[in-house]
Specification:
Immunoglobulin-like, 12 strands, eight-stranded antiparallel β-sheet, four-stranded antiparallel β-sheet
Amino acid sequence: MDILKNTGRIAGVVAFGLWSGVSIAESLPGGASSLTESYENWELTCVNQDETPVCSLAQVQINAETQQQMLAVELRPDGAGGLSGVMVLPFGLALSQGIAIGIDDQEANATLGFTTCLPVGCLVPVGFDAGSIASLATANQLTATAIISDSGDPISFVISLTGLQNAHARLQDVLRN
């Protein structure tokens, strides 16, 4: 959709401390207290919490006409070589139907349920194991399809995967050093 634009700013979408991060390194590079780097459509953010870096990867999509948030995704290392986190979608969706997730033009291969709604939108927990991350690295987009509650029509939210592989590699590098 032309009216959507990607932006790396979190804009208060997901509280950075909502999920506990996995960390290995003792501090951020150069002794920094925080780190923010953009990788095309993804942003890597790390902060020191008790002398230990906690990092996440995020993508936020804002409607260019209304300036309202349409979608946000935040992922963190899960400690088992994967990434887990949350997708924040707008109000007005049929929560009981969940969302169907597909990669590129493939059929949706997973259905995920909403857990709750907050003032910023409705939350869907997401997780990707190491094998799924490898699949995402060669893909162009992840599509989340939901049902509009009023009309029953499907609506698709496209998450660009451009930059995710490089952002994930950098996240791993930061946490190792």
